[in-house]
Design goal:
376 residues; mainly alpha; ABC transporter involved in vitamin B12 uptake, BtuC; 16 helices; ABC transporter permease; transmembrane helix; cell inner membrane; membrane
Length: 376
């Protein structure tokens, strides 16, 4: 796995399996002055940094203004806002789950088909085999977590590249879902099961409440606990983290299992929301989470996957998709928009990394020149 080093005081540079994550870090206080830079240059750099890290919020405002002016009768409604929130809730949970693996420095390309198989199994247990809904939910979550464990076995123990291992597992999961459904829809689930997703306290879809609670928990763990810091360190530079005493393999295994468990939660909620699924239902939950996670690495805390940036990215994607769908009515809008967003996010990451590398080289040269004694 290709990774970059972790500099003191800088955000970890996460680059799972050679993918380029966004790198945009601020300088320590006073460094520009020590290297001879002008104060105005420091101010300009900080201004550009703020603009870049909050650009997603500015784009959200811009999209709201554009679509609100273009189709105000359909876009500027409470129904549209509620639909965007409800549509993004499951994707938020899947993306948060994926972030655990990415933060540890590995890909999980099986997440979409893990969601699909989980939904097929959950609905089958409830509607076909008449399991207790709670037991069916627990069994589904544990199954998805076990699939995360299988990914960990292939990557950590066997040593297969995470891209290849999880891609293969995802294909096998799709085949399993097709076998279980015989290419037919399974369901519907009883109304007593659908209440898990249809409840709207104070008019707020309960799915978005679930998603935000999980986002808050993920934010706390990643930003304010030793586990989160060690996870970031593992993904940024496994060798350095290992030398510092971190059991990096254990953190990778834990991250992949956690990704599977989170995907299981998403599968259960998806089952309760739509009640009937086909084997291909998971196809919608691969591209969007990856696009959101890579875009998140350019927002709020540039240079690493962060929950705040993820929420900004997902609602940016959700508003864009919903607005264009209302304008055109085309069914291909989500795939096109998410695909373009993924390309732009990774492209921006590459640009930011190159700029940071050039700036670091200039600072090193300036420091060397400034520290040399011309009389020697």
């Amino acid at each position: 796995m290709a990774r970059t080093s972790v500099s003191s005081g800088a955000a970890p540079r996460v680059a799972p399996d050679g993918a380029v994550a966004a790198i945009a870090e601020s300088r320590p206080a006073g460094e520009s002055m020590r290297s001879g830079a002008k104060p105005t240059s420091l101010t300009a750099n900080l201004g550009r940094l703020r603009l870049g890290r909050y650009s997603g919020i500015f784009l959200i405002v811009a999209l709201v203004v554009i679509f609100g002016s273009w189709i105000p009768q359909t876009f500027l409604t409470a129904t549209t806002v509620q639909a965007i929130a409800q549509n993004e809730a499951i994707t938020i949970i899947v993306s948060l789950s994926l972030m655990a693996a990415l933060a540890a420095g590995v890909f999980d390309l099986s997440i979409g088909q893990n969601v699909g198989l989980g939904a097929v199994v959950c609905i089958s247990l409830v509607s076909t085999y008449h399991w207790n809904p709670v037991a069916a939910c627990v069994a589904t979550i544990l199954m998805c977590g076990a699939i995360g464990g299988l990914n960990a076995l292939l990557i950590v123990v066997v040593g297969i590249d995470s891209f290849i291992a999880t891609l293969g597992v995802g294909s096998a999961l799709l085949a399993a879902a097709e076998f279980l459904t015989n290419d037919q829809f399974v369901g519907p689930t009883p109304a007593s099961f659908q209440i898990f997703a249809e409840w709207q306290p104070l008019g707020i879809p309960v799915l978005i409440i679930y998603a935000l609670v999980l986002a808050l928990a993920a934010w706390y763990v990643l930003e304010h606990t030793p586990v989160g810091r060690r996870l970031y360190a593992t993904g940024a530079n496994a060798d350095a983290a290992r030398l510092a005493g971190i059991a990096t393999k254990r953190y990778v295994v834990g991250a992949l299992i956690l990704t599977g468990l989170g995907v299981g939660v998403a599968a259960v909620l998806l089952s309760a929301e739509i009640g009937s699924v086909s084997a291909q239902v998971g196809n919608s939950y691969l591209l969007a989470p990856f696009a959101a996670c890579f875009l998140a690495a350019t927002q709020i805390k540039p240079g690493r996957y962060n929950v705040g940036g993820l929420l900004v990215a997902l609602f940016l994607l959700g508003i864009g998709v919903k607005g264009l769908s209302l304008v055109t009515g085309a069914v291909w809008i989500p795939d096109l928009f998410n695909g373009v967003a993924l390309i732009l996010a990774v492209g921006l990451a590459v640009i930011l990394q190159r700029r940071t590398q050039r700036r670091s080289k200039r600072q090193a040269i300036s420091a060397e020149i400034g520290g040399s004694n011309p009389m020697e």
